[in-house]
């Protein structure tokens, strides 16, 4: 049975570390980190995610501002709102929750965010800096995974890391981070996607398998090398009448059978998910202390 990589506990450890630093800042009379989140429209999942981010800010002593905008807002008005926050010296970090309504260009909005407030790490400047192995705000999910590998002392140097899924938010940056010269990193990386041939055979050669393709229980035990480290980024609701809520959460990995074969694995829920908020908070702390960018 694999070691459980506990994202819930690790994210709480990180939140405690950040809260301790906030307490020090308060004692020193320094500036309290302040995160602003823009939420456009009333998408249920986005409301839940943003609510969790704002709640986490309060828990650790950050200030937060939630800007709720109607989904009929024009692109120009949203860009103007981003400009306002860019120019507001009291706000250290800004996120614009995705997805945005179809009439608004994600590229234009992302490109408008000032890179030194881009605590989501989505701007071309931060993605480029990350790819160059320069100091940068790294996107929350890949950063959370890197932190889990570090805190569980998982050896990555010389290992074969297979990433399934090439999204801008997870798969693509993850492949860059695992290949870069450092720790975690120095892995030999294969980035696979919907057009990859022989995916199963490639996955079977992975020492570290990072799964972020968004298909429930896609990875089964026969795709996993004995002793592999398996990181599951997927999260899906499935109906379950035995639960009070009527549903349960599953990942992109068939957990029970893969856990029998892997040496370490992240559960869903309680694996990568909780780490994303901890990463966002950490980036916001860095932004407030002007430590990474600029
Ligand atoms: N939508 C889904 N994940 C994210 C995220 O990490 N940041 C933002 N801004 N939107 C998201």
From TrEMBL:
<keyword id="KW-0486">Methionine biosynthesis</keyword>
<dbReference type="InterPro" id="IPR020867">
    <property type="entry name" value="THF_DH/CycHdrlase_CS"/>
</dbReference>
<dbReference type="InterPro" id="IPR000672">
    <property type="entry name" value="THF_DH/CycHdrlase"/>
</dbReference>
<dbReference type="Pfam" id="PF02882">
    <property type="entry name" value="THF_DHG_CYH_C"/>
</dbReference>
<dbReference type="InterPro" id="IPR036291">
    <property type="entry name" value="NAD(P)-bd_dom_sf"/>
</dbReference>
<comment type="function">
    <text>Catalyzes the oxidation of 5,10-methylenetetrahydrofolate to 5,10-methenyltetrahydrofolate and then the hydrolysis of 5,10-methenyltetrahydrofolate to 10-formyltetrahydrofolate.</text>
</comment>
<keyword id="KW-0658">Purine biosynthesis</keyword>
<feature type="domain" description="Tetrahydrofolate dehydrogenase/cyclohydrolase catalytic">
    <location>
        <begin position="5"/>
        <end position="120"/>
    </location>
</feature>
<keyword id="KW-0554">One-carbon metabolism</keyword>
<keyword id="KW-0028">Amino-acid biosynthesis</keyword>
<dbReference type="GO" id="GO:0006164">
    <property type="term" value="P:purine nucleotide biosynthetic process"/>
</dbReference>
<dbReference type="GO" id="GO:0004477">
    <property type="term" value="F:methenyltetrahydrofolate cyclohydrolase activity"/>
</dbReference>
<keyword id="KW-0368">Histidine biosynthesis</keyword>
<feature type="binding site">
    <location>
        <position position="235"/>
    </location>
    <ligand>
        <name>NADP(+)</name>
    </ligand>
</feature>
<keyword id="KW-0560">Oxidoreductase</keyword>
<dbReference type="GO" id="GO:0004488">
    <property type="term" value="F:methylenetetrahydrofolate dehydrogenase (NADP+) activity"/>
</dbReference>
<comment type="similarity">
    <text>Belongs to the tetrahydrofolate dehydrogenase/cyclohydrolase family.</text>
</comment>
<feature type="binding site">
    <location>
        <begin position="165"/>
        <end position="167"/>
    </location>
    <ligand>
        <name>NADP(+)</name>
    </ligand>
</feature>
<keyword id="KW-0378">Hydrolase</keyword>
<keyword id="KW-0521">NADP</keyword>
<dbReference type="InterPro" id="IPR020630">
    <property type="entry name" value="THF_DH/CycHdrlase_cat_dom"/>
</dbReference>
<dbReference type="GO" id="GO:0035999">
    <property type="term" value="P:tetrahydrofolate interconversion"/>
</dbReference>
<dbReference type="GO" id="GO:0009086">
    <property type="term" value="P:methionine biosynthetic process"/>
</dbReference>
<comment type="subunit">
    <text>Homodimer.</text>
</comment>
<dbReference type="GO" id="GO:0000105">
    <property type="term" value="P:L-histidine biosynthetic process"/>
</dbReference>
<feature type="domain" description="Tetrahydrofolate dehydrogenase/cyclohydrolase NAD(P)-binding">
    <location>
        <begin position="140"/>
        <end position="291"/>
    </location>
</feature>
<dbReference type="Pfam" id="PF00763">
    <property type="entry name" value="THF_DHG_CYH"/>
</dbReference>
<keyword id="KW-0511">Multifunctional enzyme</keyword>
<comment type="pathway">
    <text>One-carbon metabolism; tetrahydrofolate interconversion.</text>
</comment>
<protein>
    <recommendedName>
        <fullName>Bifunctional protein FolD</fullName>
        <ecNumber>1.5.1.5</ecNumber>
        <ecNumber>3.5.4.9</ecNumber>
    </recommendedName>
</protein>
<dbReference type="InterPro" id="IPR020631">
    <property type="entry name" value="THF_DH/CycHdrlase_NAD-bd_dom"/>
</dbReference>
<dbReference type="InterPro" id="IPR046346">
    <property type="entry name" value="Aminoacid_DH-like_N_sf"/>
</dbReference>
<dbReference type="GO" id="GO:0005829">
    <property type="term" value="C:cytosol"/>
</dbReference>
């Amino acid at each position: 049975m694999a070691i459980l990589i506990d994202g819930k506990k690790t994210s709480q450890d990180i939140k405690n570390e950040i809260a301790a630093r906030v307490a020090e800042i308060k004692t020193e009379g320094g500036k309290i980190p302040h995160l602003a989140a823009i939420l456009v429209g009333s998408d249920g999942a986005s409301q839940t995610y943003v609510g969790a981010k704002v709640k986490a800010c309060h828990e650790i002593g950050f200030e937060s501002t939630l800007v709720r905008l109607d989904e009929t807002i024009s692109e120009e008005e949203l860009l103007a709102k981003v400009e306002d926050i860019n120019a507001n010296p009291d706000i250290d970090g800004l996120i614009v929750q995705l997805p945005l309504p179809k009439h608004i260009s994600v590229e234009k909005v992302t490109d408008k965010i000032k890179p030194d407030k881009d605590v989501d790490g989505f701007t071309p400047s931060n993605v480029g800096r990350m790819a160059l192995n320069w100091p940068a705000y790294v996107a929350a999910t890949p950063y959370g995974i890197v932190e889990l590998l570090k805190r569980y002392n998982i050896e990555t140097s010389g290992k074969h890391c297979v990433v399934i899924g090439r999204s801008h938010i997870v798969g693509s940056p993850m492949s860059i981070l695992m290949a870069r010269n450092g720790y975690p990193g120095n892995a030999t990386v294969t980035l696979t996607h919907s057009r990859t041939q022989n995916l199963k055979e490639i996955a079977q050669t992975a020492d570290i398998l990072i799964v972020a393709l968004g298909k429930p229980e896609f990875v089964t035990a026969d795709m996993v090398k004995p002793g592999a480290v398996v990181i599951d980024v997927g999260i899906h609701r499935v109906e379950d009448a035995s639960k009070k809520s009527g549903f349960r959460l599953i990942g992109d990995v068939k957990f029970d059978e893969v856990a029998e074969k892997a040496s370490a694995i992240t559960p869903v829920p309680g694996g990568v998910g909780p780490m994303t908020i901890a990463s966002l908070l950490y980036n916001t702390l860095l932004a407030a202390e002007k430590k990474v960018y600029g």
